[in-house]
Amino acid sequence: MPVSLPNLLTLSRIGAIPLLIMLVMLRAPWADLLACALFSAAALTDYFDGKIARDRGMVSGFGAMLDPIADKLLVAAALMLLVGLERVEDRALLPAIVIMLREILVSGLREYLATLRVSMPVTRLAKWKTGFQMGALGTLLAGDSGAAAIGLGFLPVSLIGEAMLWIAAVLTLITGWDYWISGLRHAGGAGGGDART
Q1: Which residues have a Cβ under 8 Å from the Cβ of 71 and sit 6 or more positions away?
Q2: Residues 112, 92: Cα–Cα separation, whole Å
Q3: CA–CA dist 156, 175 (Å, integer)
Q4: Mean pLDDT on 157-164
Q5: Residues 169, 93: Cα–Cα separation, whole Å
Q6: Angle at the Cα of 173 (from 171 to 179), degrees rounded to 5?
Q7: Cα–Cα distance list, 15 to 9, 70, 183, 195 (Å)
Q8: Position 195 confidence tier, pLDDT thresholds 50, 70, 90
Q9: Considering the entire predicted model, what is its pTM?
Q10: How many CB atoms lie within 10 A of CB 56?
Q11: Which of 67, 140, 134, 143 is nearest to 99 (CA)?
Q12: Taking the alpha carbons of 25, 29, 34, 35 in that order, is the dihedral positive or negative?
């Protein structure tokens, strides 16, 4: 395993997950605030690990493989906590499902296209999707109780987080469709492959 600052930042995102789970399961306003701060810090590492790797010429196969895995693990853990502990309204279940399914779809496409030696670069719209998604999850982890703990109980924090989650879900559908069409184009060019699972 190549040890470099970008890879350590990526690994820290995975390492934050058990602590995030513990904080959310405490169900205390102060723990909600800490969970929001931890998630936000972990989400920021996603920007910095890539930037540092590119700027310093430290891009590695290990980092390229680990980065999307760390992102998906962090997002999946946060979504499952919020839904499983009923921290979001039932209406927020739909965007959560859309986001999870898109992550699985894109992972499968990337894995298949890698066998064809085709890469799927991240689009600008996908970066916006990630920004809204991470912002929404951090906001929802803080929740109304976390906002009240710091004197911001008048803000509809959970409602704001859910609105951001819906925006992320719409962007998720658009970018997921783009990746799907791109994947089909390359699969068709390779003779279609074996459609069996």
Answers
A1: 13, 46, 130
A2: 31
A3: 29
A4: 95
A5: 11
A6: 100
A7: 10, 9, 32, 36
A8: very low
A9: 0.86
A10: 11
A11: 134
A12: positive
Mean residue pLDDT of the chain comes to 88
- Contact present, 84 and 73 (Cβ < 8 Å): no
Sequence letter at residue 74 = L
pLDDT confidence bin for 58, thresholds 50/70/90 = confident
In the numeric block, which tokens belong to residue 181?
A: 């069409």
- Residue 95: strand, helix, or coil: helix
Cα Rg for the chain, rounded, in angstroms? 18
pLDDT in tens, 99-154: 999 888 888 887 777 777 777 777 889 889 999 999 999 999 999 988 888 888 89
The domain spans of the chain are 5-189
What confidence score (pLDDT) does residue 192 get?
45
CATH topology of domain 5-189: Four Helix Bundle (Hemerythrin (Met), subunit A) (1.20.120)
Q: What is the mean pLDDT of residues 11-40?
A: 96
